[in-house]
Write a structure and sequence with these properties.
The chain is of the alpha+beta class. The chain has 3 domains: 50-318, Aldolase class I (TIM Barrel), CATH 3.20.20; 328-526, Golgi alpha-mannosidase II (Immunoglobulin-like, Sandwich), CATH 2.60.40.1180; 534-723, Jelly Rolls, CATH 2.60.120. The chain is 17% helix and 35% strand. Strand 2 (84-87), helix 5 (113-122) and strand 3 form a beta-alpha-beta unit. The radius of gyration is 28 Å and the shape is flat. The chain starts with a helix and ends with a strand. 50% of the residues are buried.
């Protein structure tokens, strides 16, 4: 057997053994940390800090770095544990000096990097810098290829404490016979050795934003953390992808070596506070680096409260260094258990679906020993309760509930752990339709509760009928009480609404004052589509459609309308359209009033095709839309085939809905326009020729939406669709 093959076999056996240890730890006790990691004495817990990239991209400057460092001190982030101030790409001058040394951009860093490092160090913080293993960085500034020792010495002399090392523009042709992964390992090892040779403790972060690089399989002896996923975007769908790409790599993480699902987006504005809380909790449960990439000086009190939750940070920074392990993942409902050094468990209940749902496990399944009672501390509300073994909660859509669980020292001394949940027979209704909702109170404590009263409330315009008694004198430990309600949606409304369905419970726990709790369910209501509108759905999940007045709504998944290189037909979207409505000289227009999609291919806008309802699209088509990245894109069939094969993005333009879109057809030629002021003035997008369009005298035309990801559902809204 060749040496390389023997090495691979040892690595596989080692990973398999470590995975077995991780899984055993979920049920049998603490996770033993792995020994293989870079021997540089840093990052014994996941690094915490800030990185400029997603807030300013190439707009970084010495002034921004110093202002951010000061804000981290004054806003409490430093006190909460955030100590790295990391500068990403674009800090350099466009070329090295005459001696081959890296030089900071003289305009944005007029004094160089050393004074900035000194300033940051003076505040008790640490400085990080970005570089690249290739000839140039991703933004085409000087890379470290062939200069590894020189650059490492420069970093150390400047007082750098953290190096983020990318892998753009590597000259793979200089390494004949080696795979991409082998070349990357060679170049990362060069910089790792060069940093070690400086004698300065420097965190080494491997930036491999391509999961096929699989750095978790080989990076631990080289670096302190490595990317596990593609670059994150500021939306729930992207966060979900990066979570799912990291959560099963627990066997590869340990003190000094961490899986990195990319920088935290909390505070950037693309997600809700609840979704940001989920992101932060999931990163902590996975023992991931907590590095914020946002405008720290402008963080809201809510965003700061997420970043500075000491209890959740303690889970991430636990000295045991174990990554949480999924113990259940059914239909988008996750339970993850993370062993902690003191014997506690962090148990996270995550609802990745679009409907609130009950999630539960037990203390023994989560890895705790059998006991009469368990203490549950909710790490976001601070509530402390006692359970007889069940760990449960009614978790909102896209939300988490996070508990720190331990054996109760004095069973019966704490209030009982209870869960109030709502279960609708249908989570989506049409205007005027009815459904039944069951409200359930569950006593998971070790003593009974008394005087239970359940209540139910709805948004204005809804009707409610209770279908049974809503009071119970006693609910014994381990028992539940349920009442059903019949609810009816209003007969009129918007194309789509998310109504609040709320349940409440008041009860008398033993020897404690009266307590109350609540549960909220979002019930979606769609206006029925009328003729002549039809619908098409090419996604992997049933889409929903709504109409009311001059408004339309589409709730869908789908990767989008795009032109993948060397890929088979893959358009994936949902549409509301009219059959054969657009003639050879038609003008079609609509306003996208809301577009929550993600990525460069998901979005919402106008679409024309020869046959919209064809199973795989149609041979000729054109789409004009606003993407999840706030850009205006036109996509079309230039060469024929079932799906669009060409696209044009308006350069240098970022817009957000509402935006009005217009397509003007002249035979096989289409001109696209957009307006950000409701059609008062127009800007051109492109004029294109669509293969096969001239053969169709009349085309199907309408509006479409795709979330940008095949596992994420979003809702877009439109107004004033017109065809002339």
């Amino acid at each position: 057997m060749r040496r390389r093959d023997r090495h691979r076999m040892r690595m596989r056996l080692g990973r398999a053994l470590l995975l077995l240890v991780c899984l055993s730890a979920v049920g049998l006790g603490a996770l033993a940390p792995a020994a293989a990691s870079e021997n540089n004495g840093v990052a014994t817990t996941p690094p915490m800090g800030w990185n400029d990239w997603y807030s300013v991209y190439c707009g970084v400057s010495a002034q921004l770095v110093e202002q951010t460092a000061q804000a981290m001190v004054s806003d409490g982030l430093k006190a909460a544990g955030y100590d790295y101030v990391n500068v990403d790409d674009c800090w350099m001058a466009s070329s090295r000096d005459s001696s081959g040394n890296l030089v900071a951009d003289p305009t944005r860093f007029p004094g160089g990097i050393k004074p900035v490092a000194d300033y940051v160090h003076g505040l008790g913080l640490k400085l990080g810098l970005y570089e690249d293993a290739g000839t140039t960085t991703c933004a085409h500034f000087p890379g470290s290829f062939g200069h590894e020792a020189q650059d490492a010495a420069t970093f150390a002399a400047w007082g750098v404490d953290y190096v983020k090392y990318d892998r753009c523009n590597i000259p793979y042709g200089d390494f004949p016979g080696q795979s991409v992964q082998q070349v990357q390992q060679t170049l990362y090892a060069r910089m790792s050795n060069a940093l070690a040779a400086t004698g300065r403790p420097i965190v080494f972060s491997l930036c491999n934003p391509d999961p096929t690089d699989a750095p978790w399989e080989w990076a631990a002896p080289i670096g302190n953390l490595w990317r596990t996923t593609t670059d994150i975007q500021d939306n729930f769908g992207s966060m979900l992808v990066n979570f799912e790409g990291t959560v099963d790599l627990a066997a590869d993480a340990h003190p000094g070596a961490w899986n990195d699902p990319d920088l935290l987006q909390v505070g950037n504005g693309g997600s809700t506070a609840l979704e940001y809380r989920s992101e932060f909790s999931l990163w902590a449960e996975m023992a991931a680096p907590l590095i914020a990439s946002t405008n720290v000086s402008a963080l809201s009190p809510t965003a700061l409260s997420i970043y500075e939750n000491r209890e959740v940070i303690a889970v991430d920074q636990d000295p045991l260094g174990a990554q949480g392990v999924p113990i259940s993942r059914r239909n988008g409902l996750w339970v993850i258990s993370k062993p902690l050094q003191d014997g506690d468990r962090s148990v996270l209940l995550f609802n990745s679906t679009d409907t609130a749902a009950p999630i539960s496990t037990t203390a023994t399944v989560a890895g705790l020993p059998t006991a009469r009672g368990y203490r549950l501390q909710n790490l976001w509300t601070g509530a402390v309760t006692e359970s007889g073994g069940r760990i449960s909660a009614f978790v909102p859509a896209h939300g988490v509930v996070m508990y720190r669980v331990r054996v109760a020292h004095r069973p019966g001394a704490l209030p009982p752990h209870i869960a109030l949940s709502l279960a609708p027979a249908a989570s989506e209704l049409r205007l005027g339709e009815s459904t039944t909702v069951r409200e359930t109170f569950e006593n998971d404590g070790i003593s009974e509760v008394k005087g239970l009263k359940l209540t139910f409330s709805l948004s204005p315009g809804w009707r409610l009928k209770r279908l049974g008694p809503a009071r119970a004198k006693h609910v014994a430990a381990g028992h539940r009480f349920t009442v059903a309600f019949r609810i009816t949606a209003p007969r009129a409304g918007a194309p789509v609404t998310l109504a609040s369905v709320a349940g409440g419970a008041s009860y008398d726990p033993p020897a404690l004052p009266m307590r109350a709790t609540s549960a909220i369910l979002g019930e979606r209501v769609f206006g029925p589509l009328r003729a002549p509108f039809k619908t098409a759905d090419t996604t992997n999940y049933p889409a929903s459609f709504g109409e009311s007045g001059n408004g339309l709504a589409i709730r869908a998944r789908g990767a989008g309308v795009f032109a993948p290189a060397n890929a088979p037909a893959s358009d994936s979207f949902a549409a509301i359209y009219e059959t054969a409505r657009a003639g050879p000289s038609a003008t079609v227009q609509t306003t996208v009033t809301y577009d929550p999609a993600g990525g460069t291919s998901g979005g919402a806008g106008l679409i024309e095709r020869n046959t919209m309802s064809a199973p795989q699209g149609s041979p000729a088509g054109v789409a004009l839309f606003i993407t999840g990245s706030s850009t205006i894109v036109m996509a079309w069939n230039a060469g024929g085939g079932q799906d669009v094969d060409s696209r044009y993005q308006v350069p240098g333009v970022l817009v957000r809905a509402p935006v009005t879109l217009r397509l003007v057809r002249d035979g096989a030629t289409y001109a696209g326009y957009y307006s950000t002021n409701w059609g008062i003035s127009w800007s051109p997008v492109d004029t294109v020729t669509v293969a096969g369009a001239a053969a169709a005298a009349q085309q199907d035309v309408g509006v479409f939406h795709a979330s940008g990801l095949s596992t994420w559902t979003t809702t877009a809204t439109f107004s004033d669709l017109t065809v002339h």
